[in-house]
């Protein structure tokens, strides 16, 4: 039986750092800041396209590693066009809600597809088991944190955002979490070689109520 070797996430990201050197200005999802509130901000993201690797695992780190490995194969030519897709930022791991009594065991690891491929992304090889998500405009509450995103701290950082969001004046104008979407997501921006001033974000999708709709119109 053939066995695939899953490289450590840090090594894969290191390779992607070299890969990205040919594309110094990485594409990132476009957004507008609607409101700054304490230790978080509310953003309106434009329409975007994401390649997605679903992973069943109880470990955030292991799931991100396994999912990113498949996404990395895809951008390195693991598609029917043998097209090399430029690296983008951030890598976003969504925690999928679970109906069971334990912590979530499903994760959605996402790669932001560069705008030039939005209309027709290269078709992934079947064995990579990737799908695509086309996001309409969406409103997201975002809290930034430093260091490495690990199993022991991602839920803590998400809880901090939940507490801040729930105790803010903004809470009365928003509905969250939204049924059918991630409980929350972790966006990782930094190279593994960057030890200090690392950038990670917790994302929570929110729905603005009518009293706050004017924010998105500004």
TrEMBL record:
Keywords for the protein's UniProt record, in alphabetical order: Signal
Coiled-coil residue windows: none
Protein origin, superkingdom: Eukaryota
Record carries keyword Cytoplasm: no
Signal peptide positions on this chain: 1-22
Family of this protein: Belongs to the HEBP family.
The name this protein goes by in its record: SOUL heme-binding protein
Organism: Marchantia polymorpha subsp. ruderalis
């Amino acid at each position: 039986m053939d066995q695939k070797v899953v490289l450590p996430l840090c090594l894969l990201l290191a390779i992607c750092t070299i890969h990205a050197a040919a594309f110094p200005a990485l594409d990132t999802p476009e957004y507008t800041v609607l409101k700054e509130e304490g230790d978080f901000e509310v953003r309106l993201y434009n329409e975007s396209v994401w390649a997605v690797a679903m992973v069943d695992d109880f470990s955030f780190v292991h799931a991100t590693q396994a999912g990113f490995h498949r996404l990395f194969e895809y951008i390195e030519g693991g598609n029917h066009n043998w097209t090399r897709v430029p690296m983008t930022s951030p890598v976003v791991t969504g925690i999928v809600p679970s109906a069971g009594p334990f912590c979530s065991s499903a994760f959605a690891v996402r790669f932001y597809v560069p705008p030039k491929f939005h209309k027709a992304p290269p078709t992934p090889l079947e064995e990579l088991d990737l799908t695509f998500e086309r996001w309409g405009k969406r409103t997201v509450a975002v809290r930034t944190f430093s260091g490495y995103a690990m199993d022991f701290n991602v839920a803590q950082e998400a809880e901090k955002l939940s507490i801040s969001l729930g105790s803010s004046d903004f809470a009365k104008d928003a509905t969250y979490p939204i049924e059918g979407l991630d409980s929350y997501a972790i966006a990782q921006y930094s190279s593994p070689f960057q030890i200090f001033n690392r950038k990670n974000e917790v994302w929570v999708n929110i729905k603005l109520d009518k009293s706050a709709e004017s924010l998105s119109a500004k």
